[in-house]
Amino acid sequence: MPFVPPKKKLKKSDYEAELERLQIELVKMQEWIKQEGLKVVVVFEGRDAAGKGGVIKRITEKLNPRVCRIVALAKPTERERTQWYFQRYVAHLPAEGEMVLFDRSWYNRAGVEHVMGFCSDDEYEEFLRSCPEFERMLKRSGIILLKYWFSVSDEEQEKRFMERINTPIKRWKFSPMDLESRSRWAAYSAAKDRMFAYTDTKQCPWWVVDADTKKKARINCISHLLSQIPYQDIDYPDIELPEVNKEGYIRVPEENQTFVPDLFNGD
Fold it and tell me: Quick check: 73 and 133 in contact, CB under 8 A?
């Protein structure tokens, strides 16, 4: 067998520097989307604990929530179950000058709903037939659609699940559905393969992110996202702050105000 060199570990300092650079570019992209009236949809799918939420957080944490928003829908209501399947997702699509990040999406039907028996076989088969056309409709309407699948190994997923179980601030992330995903690994794998066979199209391809290393996955995914949306720097006008006009204002004495207790000494 040919020698395969070990993967280099990403240094924390290098990761933070590159993430900061990419987040500056994301702000530029955001301003271009707003100025040009673009409509952008980014779908994030993958195994439980694959790191989708961490990437979404790094994308959005420096952006304007009025331009870039996250859609993470709960299970459908009784009324929504009677609607056309795509209907509740359509309601969250972007208007001009907006970018929407779907933290899981209409692909729930091809994954968890199918594997867990939350939909009928007919509903599942209809989804596989209609989804590619639905996405082509989005593209024809002027929406830029990107789809990312986060791939994580069995061993790494188990490690992350154990971390969630044993870490108080992460325990809320672990759900009974996570246990089911472990016991139905093969079924989820088969569902993912069939989903790709139907929906990995030339017009709307899937982009697979190797997510075994969280930091590398974040850098790689954000870099790719930026490469898929042509944007330019926005020239901001020069701004000169005027002097504060305090004429006529009488400050309320601080002893008449109630302050939050300062629990720390010093600055």
Answer: no
CA atoms of 248 and 264, how far apart (whole Å): 35
Q: How many CB atoms lie within 10 A of CB 17?
A: 11
The predicted model scores a pTM of 0.89
- In the DSSP assignment, the letter for residue 264 is S
Which residue in this structure is represented by tokens 């987040």? Answer: 23
State pLDDT tens for residues 107-151. 999 999 999 999 999 999 999 999 999 999 999 999 999 999 999
Q: How far apart are CA 58 and CA 81, in angstroms?
A: 33
217 CB-near residues (< 8 Å, 6+ apart) = 51, 54, 55, 150, 209, 210, 211
Structure tokens at 91: 């309601």
- Buried/exposed code over 217-250 (b: 16+ C-beta within 10 A; e: otherwise): bbbbbbeebbeeeebeeeeeeeeeeeeeeeeeee
The DSSP symbol for 110 reads I
Cβ contact 48:38 at 8 Å: no
State the Cα–Cα distance between residues 222 and 214, nearest whole angstrom.
12
H or E, element range at 80: helix 78-81
